Amino acid sequence: MVASIIDGKRLGAEIEEELKSSVSLMASSSRAPHLVVVIVGEDPASHVYVRNKERACKRIGIRSTRYDLPEDSDHGDLISLIRKLNDDREVDGILVQSPLPSNFDEIGITEMIRPDKDVDGFHPINLGRIVTGRTDGMLPCTPSGIMRMLESTGESLRGKKALVIGRSRIVGMPAALLLTQRGIDATVTIAHSRSEDLESLCRDSDILIAAVGKPGMVRKEWVKEGAMVIDVGINRVEIEGRSRLVGDVEEGASEYAKWITPVPGGVGPMTISMLMTNTVRAAESRLH
Ligand code: NAD
């Protein structure tokens, strides 16, 4: 079997097209949605991510504002800025780029953002709503992008065995919760760093979501024949003297899977599209 590719770039572009028309309607009747991105320090990867988000805003017509705080700013500076943005009626979405320098309490900062402006979907109220079966709010971007990719295949997930490798607050755990929602109805196993016999768990799974951050840790022959594979990992490696981005799933898994996401060009672009979706949603609920 040679897997079909779930093309995150193409799917993301389709979502952007739909958003463009909502944004232009909003801009003509009241104002364009407004996303504020706050970045602290000089982490190069974070600056690349923020630039990509700004570019997506520009493509769609979303207004974006960026606050750059120096590496040595203190917690109080960031808290005052978030309070100001929470109260600003012209701001629809607030995103504080992760990771923050080590002197910041990142979870505490997430909890400071008004839940209806939390376009990352990481506030405990937004994560908690998923547990109650509500998926109409601010969903965390990478997990909701994963769901859109699975749905785009047209395959039913009902009763299928899904394995989520990784239990992080931003990817693995919410992805597992979304997969178990009524109407999606997958049967979910969560594996993590203490799990035993990952190989058997993988071999038994119809849907495999890898969100670990270890290049090629899921061996290609572990993938069940006909499985759907979503590779969330983004790992920079040197191959023959060249720097490349690779996923958590070993290259060649497409010989076994029925559907697979590429790295790059898979989950990454979808994460940005879902951030744009949340921003438009936040603006719609504020302006209506
Ligand atoms: P994290 O470090 O917070 O979590 C990693 C998880 O992997 C942990 O829950 C840990 O228990 C698990 N783990 C570690 N070793 C394991 C092992 N040997 N077996 C099974 N599980 C193991 O990372 P994260 O923020 O969830 O990100 C995971 C990966 O996804 C990273 O490569 C990150 O760059 C990538 N990522 C991509 C996007 C995107 O848009 N494509 C978004 C977020 C994260």
Describe this structure as you would to a colleague:
This protein has 288 residues and is of the alpha/beta class. It is built from nine helices and eleven strands. A six-stranded parallel beta sheet has the order 1-11-8-7-5-6. It folds into two domains: 31-114, Rossmann fold; 140-268, 3-Layer(aba) Sandwich (Rossmann fold), CATH 3.40.50. It is globular. It starts with a strand and ends with a helix. Helix 1 (8-29) packs parallel to helix 9 (267-287) and helix 2 (44-60) crosses helix 9. Bound molecules: nicotinamide-adenine-dinucleotide. The site of nicotinamide-adenine-dinucleotide has 23 residues, from helix 9.
Protein topology:
Blueprint: E1 4-5, H1 8-29, E2 34-40, H2 44-60, E3 63-69, H3 75-87, E4 93-96, H4 106-112, H5 124-131, H6 141-152, E5 161-165, H7 172-179, E6 187-191, H8 198-203, E7 207-210, E8 228-231, E9 235-239, E10 242-246, E11 259-260, H9 267-287
Parallel strand pairs: 1-11, 2-3, 2-4, 5-6, 5-7, 7-8, 8-11
Antiparallel strand pairs: 9-10
The structure holds nicotinamide-adenine-dinucleotide (NAD).
